[in-house]
């Protein structure tokens, strides 16, 4: 039997890619497409929104019904919309696959509480390449140790509303963990004016917002005499959407708990 998939934020840049990916993926069926009640696109066929032809599911704002009639809901929205969704996921036993970024600590706790009641996946980047890069970063940080300066540079399209990207922050966490540091204490988010010399123990972040860049991330490990750069560049949002399909299928085998793409791709150890 097909897995019923709802999409929250279905009219957005990622939402439309997700509709296309569900339509292309064997074993998955689109059961609901949700966006803001104020959206002028409410009532439009989701397949037509995504450019894949009529699918017989119209864009709606009825989250209650969507979570009741779906096995999984894929959420690529804004943190406030995710927070409104989670109680319905737990109540209606609909597994959330969360791609939204920009959560604060209190919101992350609510995600954890939801995961105690229903299997939940949270990943700031669902591409295979970025998740492989996280493994490479762990290895690079352990080998290069405290003798390098570490900087994380990310670039995204002009419409992105959060910074640094969720992926850059996760990269920072992976590197900090590998070096036994706490990212909250060692992160430097941008520099200006007379900053003084660089402190070796910091991890710097730089953000670029321009044009239609889908998502570029570089982590730079710079020593005296050499440097290592680990770079990932996404050229299509479909790479994230296909990752979300893989995550949805995988999550159906879990009952409770909080997971990420490292679990789905078996990269945990
Ligand atoms: N994990 C990953 O692999 C990836 C994560 N992302 C993240 O996904 C999120 C969305 O990105 P993107 O698609 O580019 O953004 P968009 O702004 O294009 O899409 C978000 C959609 O959510 C809608 N929305 C806003 N509020 C609500 C609500 N209360 N209920 C339902 N829908 C709502 C928006 O409507 P409206 O426009 O009318 O406000 C919009 O249609 C971001 O946080 C981004 O960082 C992006 C790519 C990959
Ligand atoms: O907003 C985006 O577009 C993206 N957001 C994610 C993030 O914040 O890391 C992932 C991807 O880079 C695209």
UniProtKB/TrEMBL annotation:
Keywords: Amino-acid biosynthesis, Cytoplasm, Diaminopimelate biosynthesis, Lysine biosynthesis, NAD, NADP, Oxidoreductase. Gene3D superfamilies: Dihydrodipicolinate Reductase, domain 2, NAD(P)-binding Rossmann-like Domain. NADP(+) binds at residue 36. This is 4-hydroxy-tetrahydrodipicolinate reductase. Signal peptide: none annotated. One of its GO terms (biological process) is lysine biosynthetic process via diaminopimelate. One of its GO terms (molecular function) is NAD binding.
